[in-house]
Design goal:
With 187 residues, the chain is of the alpha+beta class. The strands form two sheets. A seven-stranded mixed sheet has the order 2-1-5-4-3-8-9. A two-stranded antiparallel sheet has the order 6-7. The longest helix is centred in the C-terminal third of the chain and has 16 residues. The protein is globular. The model has no long low-confidence stretch (mean pLDDT 96).
Length: 187
């Protein structure tokens, strides 16, 4: 199934953030860019390295009007315990969503039903609530926050400048391409 331009459906999920418990809804993610960063489980091995990497890029992501949401099927209480006991996770400033009812994992089709865990998956959602980028990886393959930042910058550029596209390995400030019939066969 292709998720590009798919609207995120209404949801309400528990979250652990800034030493407290609350809830996040679809309305909370509108008007900004959002990264839904699904990972298999708390107290695991690859996941804390990925979340720490996201935290190391969090200031940059916030400067792009982008909020990060770490999401697993663990409860918000387990998120707090992990935050309290892991050196890497204790640094995290972004919200950690509990998808213990599997609402988001099912909506984004990343739930491993037999395991009750989410796949390792990243979704970029624009301020209108539409998915504009996604990636799903096999277990054991950690993701790169640096590459995610690059893709977010490219997504935001294309959103703002619909008549231009970003070539491979494009970074903010690099030349872009204006597609047109005069460009056919010249690249």
């Amino acid at each position: 199934m292709n998720y590009i331009n798919k609207k995120v459906e209404d949801f309400k999920v528990p979250v652990y953030h800034k030493e407290s418990f609350s809830e996040i809804t679809l309305e909370d993610i509108k008007s900004k860019w959002s990264v839904f960063f699904f990972y298999p489980g708390d107290f695991t091995f690859v996941c804390p390295t990925e979340l720490e990497d996201l935290q190391n890029h969090y200031d940059k992501l916030k400067s792009l009007n982008c909020e990060v949401y770490g999401i697993s099927t663990d409860s918000e209480f387990v998120h707090k315990a992990w935050h309290d006991h892991s050196e890497k996770i204790s640094k995290i400033e972004f919200p950690m969503i509990s998808d213990r009812a599997f609402n988001l994992s099912r909506q984004f089709d990343v739930l491993r039903e037999d395991d009750g865990q989410a796949d390792r998956a990243t979704f970029l959602i624009n301020p209108e609530g539409e998915i504009v980028l996604y990636e799903i990886s096999a277990d054991g393959i950690g993701r790169s926050a640096k590459e995610l930042v690059r893709k977010i910058e490219a997504s935001q550029f294309v959103s703002k400048h619909g008549d231009k596209v970003c070539p491979a390995n494009w970074n903010s400030g690099d030349d872009t391409i204006t597609p047109g019939i005069d460009m056919v066969g010249k690249l």
